[in-house]
Amino acid sequence: MIGYVTLGTNDLAQAARFYDAIAAEMGVGRMMEFDSFIAWGTWDGGAGIAATKPFDGKEATVGNGTMVAIEANDTAQVHRLYDIAMAHGGSDEGAPGPRGEPDPNGKVFYAGYFRDPDGNKLNAFCMADA
């Protein structure tokens, strides 16, 4: 249902370095690029992510309670995405690990939380064996 998510940035070049690295781990690249906007993903794939300078010309700010979740293939990829975020100007919001109790099928929500250089909150997650 979601086509893409857009996050505001005050430094598009810095956001580009951060999301280029995240996108590369996910096996995608830039699919659209303008002077004030870059989107990553594939035209025929799942939801993409974009970084943009706000259209109204004002400073980009972080939404309180807003978070973008990136679905990883497995727990190893959760760790790689978290590490990539830390290496590219991100900040820690919760190291990778299981969250909550296993579901009836023995699966547990496994996630690592981080912020991009502009302060937008993201996580990398998967459902893992408990």
From TrEMBL:
CDD domains attached to this UniProt entry: VOC_like
Domain VOC per the UniProt entry, residue ranges: 1-127
SUPFAM superfamilies: Glyoxalase/Bleomycin resistance protein/Dihydroxybiphenyl dioxygenase
UniProt name for this protein: VOC family protein
Gene3D superfamilies from the UniProt entry: 2,3-Dihydroxybiphenyl 1,2-Dioxygenase, domain 1
Alphabetical list of PANTHER family matching this protein: BLL2941 PROTEIN, GLYOXALASE FAMILY PROTEIN (AFU_ORTHOLOGUE AFUA_5G14830)
